[in-house]
Amino acid sequence: MKRKSLLFFLFIAFSAYIWLGHSSGPGVVQDTDRTGSPLSPDYCKACHNGGNFGTEVNILLLGENDTVTEYVPAETYTLQVSISAQGAEGYGFQAVALDSGNMGTGAFGAPGNGTQITAVGGVNYFEHSARSGSPVFEIEWTAPESGAGDVTFYAAGNAVNANFQVGGDLADTALLVVTESVSAGLRDQAASIIELQVSPNPATSLIQARWSAQVNAKRVEINDLTGKSYYSQQLRNSDTAS
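Request: output the structure for the sequence above.
Response:
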């Protein structure tokens, strides 16, 4: 009888360890990618399944005013991972940003409460550190420098029933591809060639402009941030760099 009681106790303890371990984040406990990315052997649904929550995961990259589908190099955005589920008692997730060579790219900011940054195989993952009552997770992400190319975000989200077992939960994955802004790269390249200098800034009435002697300017135009034109003038051949 004592042996059976001991085995039963060990089984309960082992089950609790599994649940508590998963609730601390798969990267921390398992040292594994569970996002469904090319680096992942499988994802959370391999263990967390059988639930009836209709789980769906969504990934958004947010700029100052709206979602974005392309990034400006070195700019900072907000990465949002959300989990849609009906009747779940809690949520967990793991997310990663990879370049075309499946290397980690960009830089995550400081994680908020209940989340953490975990390194797995030299790649940083954004994941839960405890079971969350909220289905939405956000963190700042700074884009890589110019020339990095497309970035793919992978995320797995899990809706759980909090029964201290992996059965009865339901996980899902999603991915989001954002392209590098070509216009930003061309603008930076053009600015380095033109060497445009405008003063004073801000200005009220008089503006002085200087540019590279290698540039043969045909027209000068002044616009505000909305694109509205305030001044436009055709330049003569003698109107070169000043």
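The two ends are 97 Å apart (CA to CA).
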